[in-house]
Amino acid sequence: MARIDLFQMERMQSLYWHQVEFDLSESGVSPMSIRDLLGPLADAETFLATRLGYPLSEGAEATRANIAAWYPGATPEHVTVVNGGSEANLLVLWTLLDRGDRLAFMVPNYLQGWGLGRHFGKATDTFKLRLRDGRWALDLAGLEKAVTRDTKVVMVCNPNNPTGAVLTEDEMGAVIAVARRVGAWIVADEIYRGAEVDTDAASPTFWGRYDKVIVTSGMSKAFGMPGLRSGWIVAPPELIRKVWIRHDYTTLTPNMISDILTGFSMQPDVRESIFARTRGIIRANLPPLEEWIAAQGELLTYVRPVAGAIAYVKYGPPIRSTRLVDRIREEQSVLLVSGDMFGLGKGFRIGFGFDVEQTLKGLERVATVLADLAAGGG
């Protein structure tokens, strides 16, 4: 049987998020209700009248057209709708990677792709974002080293999880140039696009910059609807047709209700209203979090996210991040995600997209453990 690595972050969250008093591990924003989404519109009656038969395996034409409109030059034939961004990543890497292929993978990152590269291909090689001049910057030398003639796929997460960093135009160009040199595909996980902190313009997409780009995304993070379990793949039509073959072995079709609501949400005016809500939550909740971080003094260091309701915080005390996060959970009933879960070291990710008062109460408990460590406590 082919190996599959334990997806440690998802296993940890699945085990503990419902057992703690304060879950600060979530990386989205407070979810929308169907009423919030549809409001008083006539579409509500259309939705209620929907017959729950099988949807089109690739998603409804209208849904795919609305998704395609967010990507320059894309058409419905460039899009297939699946069950969440995670399934999108799974299907794409399953389609692209053979046993002798290597995956070049950005770190830090959501490590699903790292595990899938090892499962479907020969190996996963990493290249890093590094703290430089006050931002998380692409390590160009590391990228060059990670991409070889055996590299089939270069995978990035942009905006980045867990740092909230966004690649510059020059950095995106460097990724494309290195991939083009060896004929590799670029898979861009853009699930946080639309959740920008300081601008109302969406982060730039990789789509349309190179003929071997695939974008995955979904309704969970910037859209605030993770319960829809709705995602999509944007790719050249011939690649989409290959993805369908694998989709027939997994979930076959999207969910009918999710497909309809995704299509509604991706109408340009609705999409922008959803993003305005998400950005409003982020902009209201980030300043109190930054005040808490500043109050911890030299114990913590932090770089402001560019997008996403997530903050990656580095700490000083000499303790491994998984052990620290376990201790915080066990002693204070607060769930964070350790730097180890993203391929980083001494740090943790804080999700701040939910009730800010609850977030701050949870962080007060985190501060108790940090203060004890600073005082020499085990």
Explain what the structure shows.
With 378 residues, the protein is α/β, with parallel strands linked by helices. It folds into 2 domains: 8-33 and 271-369, Alpha-Beta Complex (Aspartate Aminotransferase, domain 1); 53-267, Aspartate Aminotransferase, domain 2 (3-Layer(aba) Sandwich). Helices cover 40% and strands 17% of the residues. It is built from 13 helices and 14 strands. The protein has helices spanning 8-16, 34-38, 43-48, 61-68, 85-96, 112-120, 140-146, 169-182, 237-247, 256-265, 268-295, 321-332, 356-374; strands at 22-23, 79-82, 102-107, 123-132, 135-138, 151-157, 185-189, 213-218, 231-234, 300-302, 310-315, 334-335, 337-338, 347-351. The protein has an 8-stranded mixed sheet with strand order 2-9-8-7-6-3-4-5, sandwiched between helices. It has a 4-stranded antiparallel sheet with strand order 10-11-14-13. Strand 10 and strand 11 (310-315) form a beta hairpin. Helix 11 packs parallel to helix 13. 48% of the residues are buried. The mean pLDDT is 95.
End-to-end gap: 42 Å
Can you tell me the overall shape? globular
- Main β sheet profile: 8 strands, mixed
The proportion of residues forming helix, as a percent range, comes to 25-40%
Count of domains: 2
Name the structural class.
alpha/beta
Question: Any idea of the CATH class of the largest domain?
Answer: Alpha Beta
Low-confidence stretches: none
Continuous helix count: 13
For the largest beta sheet, what order do the strands appear in spatially?
2-9-8-7-6-3-4-5
Average pLDDT across residues? Answer: 95
Strand content: 15-25%
Q: Radius of gyration in whole Å, from Cα?
A: 20 Å
Number of strands: 14
* Series of secondary-structure elements, N-terminal to C-terminal: HEHHHEHEHEEHEHEEEHHHEEHEEEH
- The CATH architecture term of the largest domain is 3-Layer(aba) Sandwich
CATH topology of the largest domain: Aspartate Aminotransferase, domain 2
Q: At the fourth CATH level, what is the homologous superfamily of the largest domain?
A: Type I PLP-dependent aspartate aminotransferase-like (Major domain)
